[in-house]
Design brief:
- The structure holds 2 protein chains of 2 kinds.
- Chain A has a two-stranded antiparallel sheet with strand order 1-2.
- By secondary structure, chain A is an all-alpha fold.
- Chain A contains 13 helices and 2 strands.
- Chain B has a 6-stranded mixed sheet, with helices on both faces. A 4-stranded antiparallel sheet of chain B has the order 11-12-10-13, with helices on one face. Chain B has a 3-stranded antiparallel sheet with strand order 2-1-4.
- The longest helix of chain B has 16 residues.
- Classes of the chains: A mainly alpha, B alpha/beta.
């Protein structure tokens, strides 16, 4: 245990030196966490339409336990900031040839990949803890319910958030190693998103949308976005409007174990694939 | 003597090109080795394999008699390959701190090594602001951080200006004088000639020589001769089996000895043959000439 944690600490501190001394990485990481806190600004959204006074905070978005679903869904968009950091932290090692020097200096290929993977895990953990604290504070201020049992229910959305980030960042890491150029790796990521979209369309057109969802849930980006479903149609206001027009939402918003498993399997494949690529390549 | 590196039948194929073909050698502690060969002869690929960045096609190598894994062994090695590779946005000192973390040594030697290569006053400058010569010196400081068992240098003076070349060479000499084992890959022979005790010569991936520098060719040297009776002299030398090859170039005869002979003895011999020499010089081939004759290249 002691040895294991020393090992992790060394690899993480190596990666920390590389990242934190890089101005652009530091800027993006700080921006990311500042943006996460901006979710609190939702509370300030209010406007008047004639007699009608609208305040978003009054619509129940900060109610426990709904807030866990709402914030984890919303801030997941900001993960793109860290995606850029992760893709470039990998591809820069190729373009600066520092990967080669690291190996010559005595880092093993396994340690190199692990140092990146530990960083990805750290990013995911810190993001999850951060969003937990921000949501908790927002909820304590604005929630209509404050019983402990209600506050700490539906926490599986935080687990889903963690797994979603972990899978996505691992994908970025893999692309960084595969493509070696950060701009092209990010381009590939966008291309892949489009490919999954087109595939969904083709399956839905050739068969039906149920079949499409069943197949596409196994694709990496789709499986990640399946983890946390959109929370907006769960809002009371939206539900009541829907009921008025006779269109009841009957949707499953839960987080399912098999969805988490699919993403974890992808995470393993991406990290193992990164290692296999690095091992096979001559530098 | 303690063995630092053993290389056994190492081969590397890139698709249809065999970059390194069945190379074997041993590096013993305390010697200074040179890997010589023209560009593209497989020097860097050989070093890449023993340094864990190029996968071998066949063959094997062991560091320190196989007592640890390659990456653990590399922590006791200092190596610089082709170009200095550091994080451009970090200062010299930050870069060296990172290397210390990787090599698992304490950072206390950073200042000492920066001083050795004359970069202590520039320790806070970013790596990208360094000149090529400074980058190369930083690479040497970095390779020395762990007081390595062996220092591996691949073309350390490539692309440097004369002043930079001079600085690097004097640093290498200083390190060699301290008793550190050195493996120096170069296509420049005078670079190797002055420091190396042993040499490995590669040509098109094949190892054509491995051994002491002074035994590279069993050469007894050669005479450069001039006389008014050139034809007589040529005829005499060609008949004499004490000489292996005799060449006439630009009115100068070059006669290679096949066995040891003093210039005075030779002069005596000439007098006995009634040949009066106007020019007699006895020379040993330079390493460069030996190298070229070994690699079957012609000078220019």
């Amino acid at each position: 245990m002691g040895f294991r944690s020393m090992f992790m600490k060394r690899l993480l501190s190596i990666e920390f030196i590389k990242l934190w001394n890089n101005k652009s990485s530091k800027f993006l990481i700080l921006s990311y966490f500042i943006l996460l806190t901006f979710i609190a600004l939702c509370a300030a959204i209010q406007f008047d339409i004639g007699e009608f006074h609208f305040n978003l905070a009054d619509q129940g978005i900060f109610n426990f336990p709904y807030i866990w679903h709402f914030t984890t869904y919303l801030v997941a968009f900001f993960k793109l900031f860290l995606a850029i950091v992760i893709v470039s932290m990998m591809s820069n090692e190729y373009s600066n040839k520092t990967l080669k020097q690291n190996l010559i200096d005595g880092l093993s290929k396994k340690e190199f990949i692990l140092s990146k993977f530990y960083t990805v895990i750290s990013f995911s953990i810190i993001s999850t803890v951060f969003i937990f604290v921000v949501s908790l504070i927002l909820g304590l201020i604005y929630s209509d319910y404050d019983e402990l049992s209600i506050i700490f229910s539906d926490l599986e959305f935080l687990l889903a958030f963690f797994v979603k980030l972990l899978g996505f960042f691992s994908f970025c890491l893999f692309l960084g190693i595969l493509v070696k150029r950060s701009a092209f790796a990010l381009g590939f990521l966008i291309l892949w998103q489009i490919v999954e979209g087109i595939l969904f369309g083709v399956f839905a057109w050739k068969a039906n949308s149920e079949f499409a969802s069943n197949v596409m849930q196994f694709f990496p980006l789709n499986s990640m976005s399946n983890l946390i479903k959109e929370p907006f149609s769960r809002l009371n206001a939206v539900q009541s409007v829907a009921n008025q027009v006779g269109q009841a939402f009957n949707k499953d918003y839960g987080v399912h174990w098999y969805e988490i498993l699919i993403v974890l399997i992808w995470t393993f494949l991406f990290i193992y694939g990164s290692y296999a690529l690095l091992k096979k390549r001559d530098l | 003597m303690e063995t630092i590196l053993t290389v056994n039948h190492l081969t590397k194929k890139f698709h249809f090109l065999t970059a390194v073909n069945d190379v074997s050698f041993t590096i013993k502690k305390g010697n200074v080795y040179g890997i010589l060969g023209p560009n593209g002869s497989g020097k860097s690929t050989t070093l890449g394999m023993v340094l864990n960045v190029v996968n071998e096609t066949s063959g094997s190598f062991t560091w320190f008699e196989g007592t640890s894994t390659t990456h653990q062994a590399l922590k006791k090695v200092g190596a610089i390959i082709e170009r200095p590779n550091f994080y451009p946005y970090m200062s010299a000192e930050q870069n060296l701190k990172l290397v210390c973390k990787i090599k698992e040594v304490s950072p206390e030697k950073i200042h000492e090594k920066l001083e050795l290569v004359g970069l202590l006053d520039r320790k806070d400058s970013k790596f990208k602001a360094y000149s090529l010569g400074m980058k190369q010196r930083l690479a040497i400081a970095s390779a020395l951080l762990n007081d390595p068992e062996i220092l591996i240098l691949d073309e350390p003076t490539n692309g440097l200006d004369p002043q930079g070349i001079h600085q690097i060479r004097s640093i290498i000499k200083k390190i060699a004088a301290s008793g550190t084992t050195i493996l120096l890959a170069s296509h420049l022979l005078d670079e190797v000639e002055k420091v190396c005790t042993h040499a490995i010569i590669l040509r098109k991936g094949h190892m054509i020589y491995s051994g002491r520098v002074d035994q590279m060719t069993a050469s007894h040297g050669f005479f450069e001769l001039k006389t008014s009776q050139m034809d007589t002299l040529m005829a005499y030398l060609k008949d004499n089996d004490q000489f292996s090859t005799v060449k006439l170039e630009n009115g100068l005869i070059t006669a290679f000895l096949s066995q040891p002979m003093e210039p005075a003895t030779f002069n005596q011999l000439m007098f006995e043959q009634n040949i009066v020499l106007s020019h007699l010089i006895w020379r040993k081939e330079s390493l460069e000439e030996q190298f070229l004759s070994l690699t079957n290249n012609t000078a220019n």
